[in-house]
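Changelog excerpt

This revision adds worked examples to the README so contributors can see how folded entries look when concatenated. The first example is reproduced verbatim below.
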Amino acid sequence: MGVQASGKGQKSLSALTPRRRLLAVLSLALLVLASFMMGGSVGASFTNFASTGAPVDPGVFGLALISVMWAYDGFADLTFASGEVKDPQRNLPRAIIIGTLLIIAIYLTANAAYLYISPIGVMAKSRLISADTMGALFGQIGVSFVSVIVMISTFGSLMGSMLASPRIFFAMADDKLLFAPIARVHPKWNTPYVAITLATILGVAMVMTQTFEQLTDTFVLAMWPFYALSVAAIYTLRKSQPNLNRPYKVIGYPVVPAVFIAAAIYLVVNALITDPKWTSITFGVVLLGLPVYYLSFSKR
């Protein structure tokens, strides 16, 4: 996993990405402040926070969680580049915990601002609630402002994903668990250029064939079974290798991993019951990797 970008490219990316992140966060902070300070002029009300009294369907609630989990899923991407992180035992846990707490705060305060401006029924019908909120406060200028910020934030997220995700393809190929050419490193830039190209082709193909909602649901459903299996491996490793050096400590073991696994199982099983067609297609595509593995790589 020790593949790094060139010095010039690495410095420019490291300088640009935090600026984009900061711009997105500051823009959301502006939206939240403007909503609570100016919302009264457009009929906003704290009564929108009151419960409607309607019963909550557990199945629909579980499906809604799939979209919600998309907002938090980036926590795992940090580990993709762990081989290039200085003092990972110290810095990775801090980055994951602090980053997740910040996302929770941003997500909840932004949604509180949306709900303050628009009742829950209006929010449910909105496809671009942030643009609708800014439009209600500032008119078309607000809509244009949010559109630009979303575009910048999207490119920033794409940059982070393309820096991290191809490392998985590279590491698998380097360990002879994927086709060998994918492990090639660019002779000049020292980047896993074949893995990056593969990730780009797959991304373009998925964007051209699915809607945004389908993409997010597919991604979350495809990833969470593997998250559950990874966490479940903690129990197996502790039992089979009790003397193994463990620089990371699991807080609340064995309860916390069990809660995580139970939540992941609920998410997946509920999706299979509530939306069997699309969930089956998603898992069917994932399972296609099994015959490829057994035919090409299992003997290695």
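The second example, added in the same revision:
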Amino acid sequence: MAAVQQPTTSSKLVPATVDALLAYAARATWPAGFVIYQRGARADGVFIVLQGRVVLRSRVRAGRGFMPWIATLYETFGSEGISANPYYSTEARADDETTTIFLSSGRFRSFLREQPQHATSLIAQILSERSALLEKLRELTTMSVEQRLTVALIRMATFDSFTRDDGCIVLNTNRYRLLCELVGATRESVSLVLGRFTAEGLIERKGNSLIVHPQRLMGRMEEVPLDDLLIANTGSLGGTTAVL
């Protein structure tokens, strides 16, 4: 089987479009852990991340949830606000200190009318992220926990905020929970797979943390169906999933 290339991140808004948006959108900085909006709340407009990351989460039960998307630099979230059913489908929480801009539905219409080229890029970005979510849904229904975990870890390695200088991922308690929600599996199921990976030397245990070596995991990608390999090479966390 041909060697699998290191996956890349998903498409993002180009700086020129972000610069154009700054004249129309409201800027805000959120502290780590701040809930920007909750599921079921009335939605309006769309958010774009300028710094940090925003975790979208759907609660499954007390203490558990599913994470369909992590919005990072120049990605969007909350686009339900420009849809025909303007209610938020998930909770949005700043995972660390995060800066966003918010384009209300009224300002979106002005942006569409006055900056059609950049508005087209914004719409294309939103549609790209929707495609990543559809791929995440397919992963959940067609791939095993081990396969989804492998893809999620390799995707995480494409983001500087999750890795050390040597490219390894350090899984502490908070990131462990995040990983479980990205994979869409229980902590017990994820722990069993990580235990196998540790026994095989793919992951190192240091104190209370796990050190993941993405390059060692690449061999595991051969066990993922061929079409899912292609998605892993172009997907994002959101699409953890991309999306994971």
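Reviewer comment on example two: The mean pLDDT is 83. Helices lie at 15-22, 105-114, 116-142, 145-156, 173-183, 187-199, 214-217, 226-234.
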